[in-house]
Write a structure and sequence with these properties.
The chain has 446 residues and is of the alpha+beta class. It has two domains: 75 residues, Purple acid phosphatase-like, N-terminal (Immunoglobulin-like, Sandwich); 288 residues, Purple Acid Phosphatase, chain A, domain 2. Helices cover 23% and strands 29% of the residues. It is built from nine helices and 25 strands. The strands form five sheets. It has a seven-stranded mixed sheet with strand order 1-25-24-23-11-12-13. It has a seven-stranded mixed sheet with strand order 14-15-16-17-21-18-22, with helices on one face. Strands 4, 5, 8, 9 and 10 form a five-stranded antiparallel sheet that branches. A hairpin with an 8-residue loop joins strand 4 and strand 5. The N terminus is likely disordered.
Length: 446
């Protein structure tokens, strides 16, 4: 009898740690391969500046007649048109951007867009309540095309299937997810438009807003900026943003600040963080998104010392609570850190691993002193972040054989905040302004 009870308890515990859903298969994606690879006009939906806004972006032919309709009825019988801001790209196409404003909280909206004589299906999205908790999906390094030669269709199909499956696993097992946070290297080759088409192909991304971060594999082409319309883009950098501008936005009770760590000029990062904190001082949570980590398991002896030495004090100065990054393709989480040491209060740093399975890397068997957990399963990783007033729940999973298997779970407690120092010094502010004048001038023309 005792043995039966023990087996039953073990079975229940296994179910609580692993979820099974019908994952996308390569055959299913192959059936629509031509349409998704050639769809240069796939639309993205990205978070607005706050809960009353939502952004949309797509590329279209130079002379196509575009339109965007939205409403609150599923058949769009109440539809109204939205203004489309159009700009010329370097690829003989135009970039189309729509920002919906004045949206109601906790409301489902429907939309479709038009390209010449073609119309899309009707999609939907749901807004959150301002200043309330929410659930986010954190991923990194989907890097479509990384598992081999990116020009090989088999490679692209493998990586795309993994990306589809991760999104399906995450959203079906956690249906309250309302935003996706991607910390860089969305694609392997920044100049290949087909890889962006595949990254954006999953139907999940027609309804789930995604905030993307510039990674090192986005260097070399402005495609990233042409595919995503971001709120509060920071134009006044010293180093011109040739990929996409850094930006910030609020979601529920959290402020997200997205850095471009390909830029090594640290005053640019501080100017962005200072502006974001000044704009949204009352956000209960402050979260940094960036590609290159400062506490990575990739090289425990000498990992990004310049970034770490410069950025960690900056994050602590502005009372950041959580830092999300990628680049190493390893999942890892630090202890609470302050002044480069483990502490009772401070910042937690999480690296997201590889979301598609295109290049999964295992953490070392012996973790660095600052890391509390790593990942020893070579499979795609995703993390679910549940924001409440005083805590963020963290649950990390690997996707293995059609199942989501939990590899990490913790709770982050919000720090007491002291913003007395949360501003740039007068000297740094003046220096940054002077050095950014050339870029401020040139940014008027692009």
């Amino acid at each position: 009898m005792k043995r039966m009870i023990a087996l039953l308890i073990a079975f229940v515990l296994a179910l609580s740690a692993a979820f099974f859903v019908n994952a996308a298969t390569e055959d299913e994606i192959s059936a629509k391969w031509d349409s998704i690879t050639k769809n240069d006009s796939v639309i993205s939906i990205t978070p607005g500046a706050d809960s009353t806004q939502m952004n949309f972006c797509w590329m279209s032919d130079l002379f196509s007649d575009d339109a965007f309709l939205y409403g609150m009825k599923p058949d769009l019988s109440d539809a109204e048109g939205a203004e489309i801001k159009k700009s010329l790209t370097a690829f003989f196409k135009k970039e189309c951007n729509v920002t919906l404003e004045g949206l109601r909280e906790n409301t489902t909206y429907y939309y479709r867009y038009y390209l010449g004589g073609l119309q899309s299906d009707i999609y939907s999205f749901t807004t959150d309540a301002k200043d309330e908790g929410f659930t986010a999906l954190f991923v990194s390094d989907a890097q479509i095309g990384r598992s081999g030669d990116w020009q090989d269709d088999k490679v692209k199909l493998h990586d795309t299937t993994g990306w589809y499956t991760t999104l399906e696993q995450a959203t079906e097992n956690h249906p309250d997810i309302s935003v996706c946070l991607s910390t860089g290297d969305q694609v392997q080759n920044a100049t290949a438009s087909v890889l962006y088409n595949l990254f954006l192909a999953p139907d999940t991304l027609r309804s789930l807003p995604i905030a993307v971060t510039p990674g090192n594999h986005e260097i070399g082409s402005p495609y990233l900026g042409h595919h995503f319309s971001n709120a509060n883009e920071f134009e006044n950098t010293v180093v011109p943003a040739t990929i996409a501008r850094p930006y910030y936005f609020t979601k529920g009770n959290a402020l997200f600040i997205v850095l471009n760590t390909n830029n090594v000029f640290m005053l640019d990062h501080e100017a962005l963080i200072a502006e974001a904190v000044e704009t949204y001082p009352d956000a209960q949570w402050r979260v940094i998104m960036m590609h290159h980590g400062v506490y990575s398991c990739e090289d425990k002896d000498d990992d990004n010392p310049n970034n770490r030495n410069a950025l960690v004090p900056m994050f602590e100065k502005y009372d950041i609570d959580l830092v999300l990054s990628g680049h190493s393709h390893m999942y890892s989480r630090t202890y609470v850190m302050k002044n480069f040491e483990k502490a009772d209060e401070g910042i937690v740093y999480i690296e997201g691993g590889c979301a598609s399975g295109s290049n999964c890397v295992l953490t070392p068997e012996e973790l660095p002193d600052y890391a509390v957990v790593g990942n020893r399963i070579k499979s795609p990783v995703y993390t679910v972040l549940t924001f409440s007033e005083d805590e963020v729940g963290v649950e990390a999973y690997v996707v293995e054989n059609g199942e989501s298997v939990q590899i990490d779970e913790t709770t982050i407690v919000r720090n007491e905040r002291d913003d007395s120092n949360a501003q740039m010094s007068t000297g740094n502010k003046l220096l940054h302004f002077i050095l950014s004048l050339p870029n401020r001038f040139f940014s008027l023309f692009y």
